[in-house]
UniProtKB/TrEMBL annotation:
Record key words, sorted: Methyltransferase, Transferase
Residue span, C-methyltransferase domain: 246-403
Pfam families: Methyltransf_13, Methyltransf_14, Methyltransf_23
Domain Methyltransferase putative zinc binding residue range list: 6-67
Protein name: Methyltransferase family protein
An individual GO BP term: methylation
UniProt key word Methyltransferase: yes
Organism of derivation: Rhodopseudomonas thermotolerans
MF annotations from Gene Ontology: methyltransferase activity
Amino acid sequence: MIGYSCRSCGATLHTSFCDLGMSPLSNAFVAPQRLGNGETFYPLQAFVCDSCFLVQLAEFESPENIFGDYLYFSSFSTSWLDHAKRYVEEMTQKLSLGGSSQVVELASNDGYLLQYFVAKGIPALGIEPAANVAEVARAKGVPTHVDFFGAEVARRLRDDGKAADLLLGNNVLAHVPALNDFVEGIAILLKPDGRVTMEFPHLLRLIESNQFDTIYHEHFSYLSLTAVDTLFRRHGLVVVDVDELPTHGGSLRIHARHAAAAEIAPSVPALLDREQAHGLRTIETYTSFDRQVQATKRALLTFLIKAKSAGKSIVGYGAAAKGNTLLNFCGIRSDFVDYVADRSPHKQGLYLPGTHIPVVAPERIAETKPDYVLILPWNLREEIADQLAFVREWGGRFVVPIPNVQVF
């Protein structure tokens, strides 16, 4: 990665943030008939820009290959649907949205959010690069355009009368390699008095809570308000407000407007100051992160070795991308974890990339009665523990690996 240019400001990258070794694409699940084939592993090392403090990976695989046919469907998380509903209610009221408004979501997935705008009679359009996922959204009555968003797509949509009163993107900004083209597209498609909201995991929370497993090849960037504010201002957009959210282990929702319409709330300078106080403008904060990561790896492996040595059975729950980062980095395979259960039928019957642990339906847990269930999407620990409360009937317990190993 050294010698590459920062995808935000163009400065040469010199400083390592976190080195997780070699890993396959975290959503490149393996079909049974391909288990005997080779897999491509890429370096999974994040670097930080010494100039704008954007944490980022190199682009080893194109977005077209990563997202063209995708296995992540947002609607399988009940808590995420509830989050989307609350957002729609809040923004409809805040912006007085109605039948003459236009809402556009970037990376709209399976219509998990826009379906609630459609139900209110508010015109909505999703932009989704994965054709298979877009088809599910259309079946829900959510108009969806299949494409990768950028300046050129934005011009076409604007000229077609789709300029947005509200332009939103949830957990998409981190997935974009061409950040400047993407944000330029936002500025083009947003009406002069429109508002854009973007949600993304907060780098400060990643560092504080040791969330290294959220680093994977599909996430090109790891974002602070400091880095995003600089990026948006480069394109005439100003962050006017920011909400701190509990989702994904701690996220930000930024609200931005064209500079001419910007009136900045106190939350923005307050969070910028807090990020600076926590060292997000100091390179030493980033270079010390690797030590935390290595300590967590050793702790998890110690727990698994002790449990297996005592004859305990362990299964995983949630075939999430973050789980694949964790399992590959720690070298955890089916000798430790018998299988991983997941609600999505799109993943069941496949095998995890790299580790080749089988993915099964959740009903398998009640059949095999494991001693421990390792919750891989730890950010949903309460939701998953509630869904699997029956595990306690035979004395089973839950384990989360992040920010440190906890058994409950």
